[in-house]
Amino acid sequence: MTNKQRVVRISTEQPTHTVCVLGTEISLDVSGCTPKGATHFDVQGTAGLRVAIIYDPKFVTDAPSALRWPLKSGVEVVVSMNGPSSAVNDNKVRVSYYGPTGEMLAGALLYLTCIDLEDMSLVILTTEGPAGIFKNHQLLLQVSSSDAPRLRVFRDGGNASLSSYKHVLGSGKLSYTLQCSGGKQQTSFFVEGLDFPDAGFEGLVYLSATLLEASGQDSPDTPVFSDTVVFRMAPWIMTPNTMKPLEVFVCSVVDKSLRPNKDFVEAVRTLAKEANCKLTVCPWKENRNDQWIQDEMEFGYVEAPHKLFPVVFDSPRNRGLKDYPFKKILGPDFGYVTRELNKKASSLDSFGNLEVSPPVTVKGKEYPLGRILFGSSIPGASKGQMTQVVRDFLYAQKVQSPVELYSDWLRVGHVDEFLSFVPAPDRKGFRLLLASPLACYKLFKEKQREGYGDVLLESPKEENRKTIDEILRNETYRRHNARAQKCIDWNRSILRRELGLSEGDIIDIPQLFCLKESKAEAFFPNMVNMLVLGEHLGIPKPFGPVTDGQCCLEAEVRSLLEPLGLICTFIDDFFFYHENKGEVHCGTNVHREPFPFHWWNIVP
């Protein structure tokens, strides 16, 4: 449709309203309403559109003064839109007319609503019959009052130059009478969905067509026939770590001493380059010193048979990054959805507490788009739950049937503190990584037997520089980690059952925890909280005991993951992230390729 053009006439007496199709152009007739005595005009438009002035230098010989153009010189004004409208009449063009001495004589306003036909579903209504029948019959299209806010229907005027796309149903319009002339007639309509499935809305909307017979001036028309078309709103779909990364996001921030986190940003930049992945750095003025970009948003997408585009889900946490998804991610080819709270969000509402598994099969039932995972309190507890509006939204999408885990035993309470997924060349195509105090104690006991009991953890924090011997004989540490292991084992059982996993699909990553006010937090940087970019892993540097010339924790993780073809890069996140109760995954975010599988092929 690119560069198809139509003429729109404007008026100085009243505003003009029109619909513009994305990819087409509007030629403004600026001469048709020229006020008496006008010699020049100017044009101004809102940020969502582009205004081009086309002129012949033979007729416009002088540079326009103050961007005012001479009338009657063949100057053409062409308007096009940057992206689809988010509301009716959300963009406008003002044309002002001036006299020979510069005085303004009049102005004309044009309001535009832009639609993208490629984003919409095409419906073709075919009628056929003798012309005389429609003298006493009419065809009525209708939507219910409950469906009207959730869709918009545009009628194609049938002009090859796209001269008319009329908004006929939805957004306050409940019915439309189609004029039929007899014979065979095909009318095209484009249907746009405005909402996602959610609590109380299964995602189904209905468009009905009714043939009515006129019954006389004082009697209601009589229905002769009615038919209904059902549309299913496309669900929002998350993408797991195993999908190809397209773009990595990280925040540039400063600490209390105003030192920037540039070393961390550069480490992520290097990793993204090695993974052949675009990097976007969110500057301080846009994040307001909020580095937790994983908590702020989750990338996904929506898909129809004719169109696919990404959609960012903005969490309700609303801290420093609260405006970033809407102002910087939302765009002509990038959708946006959020769910707002009428109360303060808890940590469980942040999207570090939201993950999705790769595709799995559980007892013969296939989940080709994986299953959503999020954390809450222990089953049956009245407190410690992800907020209801977000839970309702996730469950309503249906195609990634959610699994609730127990994460409220952690001080921050996010599932990414104890689990991650990495790609693998065998078995199910992935491995589930679980943080494991038991694996860490086993490793430290091995190093103790090898004679390294007096070796210190290389922690940048003095109070954490304990020897292997000190850690192993500390009963408080042992008690804290026994509790953490029980909580992780509880989740391990849920994950095995709900994802159809065996022990061979799980890798235990050595990790210690400590309790603060009865909640657990990582004793050293939590290696399972990693950035996964294909085969490249950005893992929090644990600063463990150095044995045989290398950190024994790093060496253990390499021995577990490198045989899968994965490349381990350990990133120092200690002061900016670990000390603030987060790690590499918490401080980054990734937009990934969509699944090749189409959601409408899922077997219920």
Describe the 3D structure:
The protein is α+β, with helices and mostly antiparallel strands. The strands form twelve sheets. A five-stranded mixed beta sheet has the order 2-9-8-4-6, with no helix packed on it. The chain is built from nine helices and 39 strands. Strand 19 (245-251), helix 1 (262-274) and strand 20 form a beta-alpha-beta unit. The protein starts with a strand and ends in a 12-residue tail after the last strand.
Which characteristics define this entry?
604 residues, alpha+beta, 5-stranded mixed beta sheet, 4-stranded mixed beta sheet, 39 strands
List the helices and strands and how they pair.
Layout: E1 4-9, E2 16-21, E3 24-29, E4 40-45, E5 49-54, E6 69-70, E7 76-81, E8 91-98, E9 104-115, E10 121-129, E11 137-142, E12 151-156, E13 165-170, E14 175-178, E15 183-193, E16 204-213, E17 222-232, E18 237-238, E19 245-251, H1 262-274, E20 278-282, H2 284-287, H3 293-296, E21 297-304, E22 307-314, H4 324-329, E23 335-338, E24 354-356, E25 360-362, E26 365-367, E27 372-376, H5 388-396, E28 403-406, E29 419-423, E30 430-436, H6 437-452, H7 468-473, H8 475-499, E31 506-510, E32 513-516, E33 519-522, E34 531-533, E35 536-540, E36 546-547, E37 550-551, H9 552-561, E38 567-571, E39 588-592
Parallel strand pairs: 1-3, 2-9, 19-20, 22-23, 27-28, 30-31, 35-38
Antiparallel strand pairs: 3-7, 4-6, 4-8, 5-7, 8-9, 10-15, 11-14, 11-16, 12-13, 12-15, 16-17, 18-21, 19-39, 21-22, 24-27, 25-26, 29-30, 32-33, 34-35, 36-37
